Structure formats: C-alpha cells, structure tokens
Amino acid sequence: MTTLKSVPGRLTRKEVPDALSWNLSDLFTSKEQWEESLEALRLQTEKLSDFKGTLHKGKTQIEQCLEQYETLIIQLVRVSTWANLLYAADGTSEENQINASRIGTEMAEINKKTSFISTELSQLPEHDLRQLISDEGSISRFKTMIEDILSWKPYLLSPQTEEALAALGQVLGSPYTIYQRSKTSDMTFENILLDSGEALPLSFALYEDRYEFSKHPEIRRKAYASFSKTLKRYQHTFASTFAAEVTKQSTLAKLRGFESVTDMLLHSQQVSKEMYLNQLTIIQAELAPHMRKLAKLRKRVLGLDKMTFADLKAPLDPDFEPPTSYENAGKIIMESLEVMGPEYLKIMNKGLTEQWIDLADNIGKSTGAFCSSPYNVHPYILMTWTDTMRGAFVLTHELGHAGHFYLAGHNQSYMNTRPSRYFIEAPSTMNELLLGKHLLRTTEDPRMKRWVILQFLGTYYHNFVTHLLEGELQRRVYALADEGKPINASVLSREKKDLLSSFWGDAVEIDDDAALTWMRQPHYYMELYPYTYSAGLTASTAVSKLIEEEGESAVKRWIEVLKAGGTKTPVDLLKYAGVDMTSDKPLKEAIQYVGELVDELEESYKD
After folding, report:
1. Which end of the chain is more exposed for a tag (fewer CB within 10 A), N or C?
2. Which residue in 442, 438, 338, 342 sits closest to 393, CA to CA?
C-alpha cells in the first residue's frame, strides 16, 4: 500500500486545519483507548456466548442475553465508527486502511458468535415471541429487534447456515469496500487543461461539488470529459464489483425463498412492491416533462449550442452569486429551522459549532456527504465545503439526519432507534425544503428569487432525478439477475444510457460518458437505497405543506415521529405525521409542486 502525494491545489489530510475537521475525541481520546475498547469487545463477545443454547428457558434469560448483546453492539458501533470515519477522511492512509479492515474482521467474528441469538429466538413459537412484544416491561426496549425476527422467521436458514453467513460478513460486504477503496485510494484524475493554458486540479469532490455547477461552459465540459476519461479506465473493475453485489443479493434471495431480489430487499424496508413501483414509474412518467422544460430553458437562457449532460447543473444566472461562506450558510440554516422549535434548534446549533462536521477537501477523502450517528455520542457529518450555496442545502440535509438520530437516540433504546430505510431521507429533505422556502420567503429581489428557485430545484433534481434514476437502474439490473443474465460494463452502460435517454427525450444529448454515471454513486451497494431518496422527499414535501397550513401542531407531530425512531413502520410513522404514503396523492402533489417551480422560473425570464 502506498500513500498518494499531494497535487497542486489540494491538501493532504495532515495539512487540514483543525477548524475544518471533525473532533473524533468524543469517540476515543487516543488510538490506545480505541485498542483497549476493541480488546474489550472480544471479552464481551465470549461472555455473551455463554447464553448459547439457553434462550428457550424463558423471558428472564432472553432479557439478560439481549441486554448484554445491546451493550456489546453499542460499543461495537462506537469502535467501528471511529475507524470508519478516519478511513472516510483519508482512505490513502495505510493505517486507516488496516484499522478499517480490522473492524471488518472483528464485526464478522462478532456476528458469527452472536448469530445464535436471532436463530434461537426465531425457533421459539410465534405466540411466545408475540408475548414478548406485548410485554410493557423492560424487554419492550427490544421490541423492534423481536418484530424483525418475527418477520424474517419464514425466511431463515438452518442455524449452521446462518452462522456461516454471519462469519462471511466481511466477504459479503467486500463489493462496497472494493468500490470505496478504488475511488479514494486508486483513482486519480488528470488536471483540467483550459484553452488559456491554465490547469485546474480535479477530484471526485471537486467535480461533483464545484465543476458541475461552473458558470463557464468550457470548465464544465472539459471537467466532465476529464472526469469521464478516468471513469472509463475503471469501468470493467467497477462493473465486476457491481455484479458481485448483485450476485450476492440474488443468491441470498433464492436461498431464503423469496420470489425475487426486490421482494427480499423490500421486506427489509417494510414496504410493499406497489409503493416501490409507484415511486419509480410515476416520477419517470410525470416528472420528465417538467425536467425537460427546465433543460430547454437552461439551454435557451445560457445560449448553449447544445444541451449536454455536463450542462444540466449550469447556473441560469452565471454572474449572480450571493454570499456563501460556511458561517453565513449556518446562520441562514438556523433561521430557516426556527419553525421546528427550540429543542430541534439546539441540536442544530451543537452540530454547527461543536465540530460534528468535516468540511475539508483533501486527498483520500470520501466523496459526497453522509451522517454517521453512533449511539450515546453524537452524529458526525462528512461533506466537502466548496463555497457554493448548493453546499448549504447539502449541509442542512445532513443536519436533518443528525437531528433525527439525535432525537431518536435520546428517546429510544439502541435497538429501537433506527427506522426503515424508506423513511430515512424524509427528515433530511425536510430540512432542505424548509431552507428553500425560507430563502424564497425572505427576498423580494426578482433576480435573487430566481436564483433561489434554481437552488431549490436542485433538491428535487438530486432526489427525484439523480437518485430516482439510480433506483430505476437497480430495478433493471435486479430483473436481469432474476432472469440469470450476466452483468458487465457494457450492460450497465447500455441500460443507464437508455434510461437517461428515455427520461430526457430530445431535451438533452446523452452521450457514452453520461452512460458511465452508474460508476459514481456508492448507493448501489446499499440494497434498495436510491429510490428511497424520492420517497423521503415525497413524504417531507407533504409534511412541510402541513406545517405551513397547521403550524405548531404539525411540527409537534413531526418531532414525535423523529423521536419514535424505529418503533413504527415507515407507513405508520408518516401516517402519524399526517401523510398516507400508500396512495399516490403525496407523490403527484410533489411532482405538481416541482412543475410550479419550473413554471415560475420560466415566467421570470419573460420579464
């Protein structure tokens, strides 16, 4: 393993100022303390193994076992978070790579030695398990886990097979590991050479957070070409990695007796296939005309010779850029979230001021943004701040995740904290909506309002277009896998190009480089995650409308939903908030709202 050298314009991790990095000492104050905790995990695991073969003895034995198991997992999450955050901040570090690998090995070993818990509980009569759930005593803290065991009971394999699968956890997770390591440690990009002779540094983060939004057509298109050139060099490796993930899921679905991969993955999300397909089909059919209209408007206003995939995020008013420092973004975010009340605002302020957030752009840093929320500590947010207003939307999005899990973690046991993936993006996109509406509400300047609408539309583009079309590619790829057809680079590029062409029609030229966008996101290694971005934004659009109409009562319900964690299904969580996600009404109303924003933007250019 080698450490990459710095390129002009980018820092190594050691050069990053403390003010731009997160404070991991809230997890562990030193590497030695982390090592001690890692060793303690092994002893805790051995102690827990004493319960093996005893869970049939009744409630008291089960409760004692689950209490020790919960303590073990909370500490495991803490230990793994520390190692994984260091790796996300600098994947080129050999020490970080080793520690991340050690955690993978340790997790696999712990999962193997504790797999007996779910296996033995699943072998109990259904009546006994339901009796445990109905108990109002201390065992109710494990309600979500026991409900999950009940739902998977028909699909579990023999105890020996389940233990073997648990032992292979690190191997089964290797497609994602390989993908991430290739991006952060191996993939390097050539500088962007402009006609003027100037050379601009290029990275995943710089392309996705800055150059895609550049007001200069030459920079956008040359950055896109250089970025795609590197992607092409890795397409066959990444395709094999993608195919390994698909094969893994397909094989597990067959072993467990599901009709398809999709059925298995939706089972985990507590979502019906009808709800899943509604998101994919309705958005593609009904949102496409609005997005095509926006693309044609962009081409006309910017005077482009043609509308290419590289131009889709070009600013409509290139010479208008309001102040976008991190401090200013934080101030605006706090103002936009005042409606959420003092309890929520206090969490947001802690996140912005107590080094929960890693902002730097350095070599080896993971691309994109995420929020990690270790129980009994506080959330950590990774993003790359590049002084764009779009960054304020990314920041408030991740703060939405942070607020959700901070509230859930302080009101639920660890086992009851995490809801279905289907719901996960609702709290984060809620923050984005509140920010966008606040910005629109607080300006009378037509030019500023126009600019804000474009930024606001960026939220819908990200969730209803970028991630939704990722979800459509997943649907197609898993359908091919169910038919036994091979997955390779040409198949993935062909399918991606076809769905992009279908969505954009004649409004955008889709070239072979656009077809490579299946290589850009890690979400394909996270089960059926991509489409849930659109589900979350659909839900938050509806709830934000209720907040506007009802005020405090709707806010109170929403805060209670966040505090509920995983104690309810996603349908029940949103029903409590006032939204019925089993109907297509929220989806159609969200698409209608996007159309209204596009129409308002177009109208502003008639003045």
Report:
1. C
2. 438
